[in-house]
Amino acid sequence: MKTYRPTTKSRRHMSTLPFRKTLSGDKPTKQLLASKKRQAGRNAFGRITTRHQGGGHKRRLRDIDFTYNKFDILATLETIEYDPYRSANIARVLYADGERRYVLAPKDLGVGDTFTVSRTAPVKVGNRLPLGKIPVGTFVYNIELSPAAGARLARSAGNYAQVVAHDAGYAQVKLPSTEIRKISDQCFASIGSVGNEEHSLVNIGKAGRARWMGKRPTVRGSAMNPVDHPHGGGEGKQGRGLRRAKTMWGKPSGKGQKTRRPKKFSNTFIVSRRKVGKRR
């Protein structure tokens, strides 16, 4: 992590990632960039549907390849770049047939390293192959939930899942949330873990830096009136007065509470629910 001299109060604890050491310094490829309108948490009527969003620095959307549909073609990492829309770094890869794409940059792979997507690929960091061909105990990321549907799980910085068992055409995968879930053996996953694992250690340091990121201020429910939030009211600084935390609309929130719908279609694929609090 990169720290700074305490020239101001906010600078004292502020930290950033060592970009010079991790990124290759290349500019984004124009052919892989796109524009995206900022919604700022509003819906089509202009009403706020997601609080605490808005403003922020202008961004360009990178076209990230999560389908990995170029099989048995060697890919070489050309650059490691920053992506403002995700916590992980991205890599521009050059396939042997001349096509270039952006993918998530895995840990322990740098500029000049290679990987391949194949049903017969060796179990090596960066390679992508079906879960049925991956040994128990292997760390994986960019996991598909349905065959050929594209990567959905374990895509954030430093994340990985672990293959813990194979049974009846399914692989049992332990996800970053500690949930163990059954996924078809035909689904592809990448070997290793996502890079930029120090992202979670960043200290924003000051409110203005959060505004650059598009984050607007958050007010605690306990600081509101009872008419505005279930945690509001009371003389002085009070606790929430409820056994379980609630959202502004009275629904269970955070603090280790179960918020999953009881009849969700994917419940049959869950072998072990995620652990929360001290049990985790």
Level-2 CATH architecture: Beta Barrel
Low-confidence stretches: none
CATH-defined topology: OB fold (Dihydrolipoamide Acetyltransferase, E2P)
Let me know the largest β-sheet. 7 strands, antiparallel
At the fourth level of CATH, the homologous superfamily is Nucleic acid-binding proteins
What is the residue-mean pLDDT, rounded to a whole number? Answer: 91
Model description:
This protein is mainly β and 280 residues long. The chain has a single domain (2-198), classed as Beta Barrel (OB fold (Dihydrolipoamide Acetyltransferase, E2P)), CATH 2.40.50. It is built from three helices and 17 strands. The strands form five sheets. The protein has a seven-stranded antiparallel beta sheet, with no helix packed on it.
What topology does this entry show?
Layout: E1 2-3, H1 9-13, E2 15-16, H2 19-22, E3 33-34, E4 61-62, E5 75-81, E6 90-95, E7 100-104, E8 114-115, E9 128-130, E10 139-141, E11 143-144, E12 151-153, E13 161-167, E14 170-174, E15 180-184, E16 188-191, H3 207-212, E17 270-272
Features:
single chain; 280 residues; mainly beta; OB fold (Dihydrolipoamide Acetyltransferase, E2P); 7-stranded antiparallel beta sheet
Gist?
The chain is built from three helices and 17 strands. By secondary structure, the chain is mainly β. The relative contact order is 0.13.
